Amino acid sequence: MSKYFSNRALKSLNIFGNLLMPETEHLPSFTQTGCLVHIDSLAEHAPEDDISALNIALVLLSFMPLFFFKWLIKKMKRAQETNGMMSTIYRQLNFGITGLLYSLYYSGKSGENYKGKPIPELIGNDSVRKYD
Questions:
Q1: Are 28 and 34 contacting, i.e. CB atoms less than 8 angstroms apart?
Q2: Which residues of the chain have pLDDT under 70?
Q3: Contact between residue 17 and residue 5 where contact means Cβ atoms under 8 Å apart
Q4: Domain boundaries in the chain?
């Protein structure tokens, strides 16, 4: 599915995506949109070493239980409030993971099985860049 991320890394991204963008009354969940199939369009512009390191971290996380993902998201969000080595790592994870996932979710791109309206249309935002 991806030439940059392993299947286990993609599993972790889907878990993070669904925790950050769950299904609501008005919006589909991250996984429901199928937008993860477009991950390579973002990864191809990132430094190879960064993607490789993120892939390794995501593979390791794929073996963790769901509560660990929830705990890690809290740590990543709170990392802006503190300093130190671990805070730096949490900030980098937050930037890398949420940056990729939010970019995909709000891009208007989706998987072939998603039949709903694009997310930008659902939230009333027509300023998303259009792709050919």
A1: no
A2: 126-132
A3: no
A4: 7-122
